[in-house]
Amino acid sequence: MHKCGLEVRIYTRSLNEITAAIPEIAELARTFAEHTLVLDGEAIAFDASGRPHPFQVTMRRFGRKLNVEASRSALPIDAFFFDCLRFGADSIATCNTQERFLALARAVPASHLVPRLVTDAEPEARAFYEAAIAAGHEGVMAKALDAPYEAGNRGASWLKIKRVHTLDLVVLGAEWGYGRRTGKLSNLHLGALDPATGEYIMLGKTFKGLTDAMLKWQTQEFLAREIRRDAGTVYIRPELVVEIAFSDLQASSRYPGGVALRLARVKRYRDDKSVEDADTMETVRKIYAAQSGTR
Length: 295
Hints:
By secondary structure, this protein is an alpha+beta fold. It folds into two domains: 2-115, D-amino Acid Aminotransferase, Chain A, domain 1; 165-292, CATH 2.40.50.140. It has helices spanning 23-30, 55-58, 68-74, 97-107, 122-134, 212-224, 281-292; strands at 2-4, 7-9, 36-45, 77-87, 90-91, 139-143, 158-162, 165-176, 185-194, 199-206, 226-229, 233-236, 241-246, 248-251, 259-262, 265-269. Strands 8, 9, 10, 11, 12, 13 and 16 form a seven-stranded antiparallel sheet that branches. It has a five-stranded antiparallel sheet with strand order 2-1-3-4-5. Strand 4 (77-87) and strand 5 (90-91) form a beta hairpin.
């Protein structure tokens, strides 16, 4: 967020200007007393219970060009700042984190600061993390107090710490790879059994975490289980279980179960499990309900 007097401009991390899409944050910035500021922060939309909406819901506001006021009314958004890069005439991006935090506290009211804890005690840090999770957030950022700001890059001085879920899912198919994966079945189609219907429900795709050895092995195994194919995908009998790590589940109109994996990656194939032992849609729905604060 760039402020010069009453002129405010807001950009995404990829430098797309979004000021017009989120006018309430521009209005907030104009109330800050300091004439010139460059701040880094997080825009968050909350539900009626005060819990943050999933990331993809908040993102609906950023691409809005028409009917902005209607969108603002339906999905209000707020800003919470975590860094200060310019304060008045001075650029402070190369100052250490502790110094920037002091400037940030002078620039922004406490109600619009990201909650922060400075500690070297693991129990305190863990309690802070657990409180963030309980409030509905993905996790916390751990930052070195002596580090400068690195634009567009978290680097080694910023560590994202968030809870990773795992599910044992069934492979329903795979897409042919490209580049160095040409000739190998790569992008996995992942699903879970819905006990109510006896059908497998697709939850998403991933090619992340696959080693060359796994690619070779699964291509052979998938082709041995092929039931049909189209131009880019081979569909297989549901016989293989794979352990998938993911950050969270998000609402999705793309998949029939209404939810999809976010940031999924392969951990390992579960040779010790049959498909009867894999996680079902009941488990998936429980995880989604827990993270969204619903029943």
